[in-house]
Amino acid sequence: MSDKLPEVWLRGPLPAVPPLLQPVAHALLQAQADVAAALASFPAEKLWERPAGVASVGFHLQHLAGVLDRMLTYAQHQPLSPAQLAYLAAEGHPAPGNGAPDSQVEYLQNAFGGKVQQALAQLHLTPENTLTEYRPVGRAALPSTVIGLLVHAAEHTQRHVGQLLVTARILAG
Length: 173
Prior knowledge:
By secondary structure, the protein is mostly helical.
């Protein structure tokens, strides 16, 4: 018998997360676990390398935290702050003086983990009867809903985690 746990979605409901938002929570926790596993032995000095021109592992880590932050903000019917817009503009670029490669990986991974925890807290506080409420997205105020934004946050996270996993594996050789 294996000591390995099943995927998050097969471990049962998460306490305090509304039933309709369980898949969002499961997907975000699975993404966090997959990133941790992929980066456990990742060569940190390759954080910003772009094999064959694809996005770097560093970009994906930044983007994972950034997109979660932005989608959660929109779901709360709030505009992005100047700090969020600056973060978006800086995605894909190492922060100046951001320390040794090992500490950069740890910092970015922790930032993503923090956003997952923030998302779980927000899911906990999201009444199911608000899920179909209109929410504008971006400067153009494109139409979405609370559930649309939360599901997009999860699926977009999963998409970038998949790309991160492949890039990390290629770079690790």
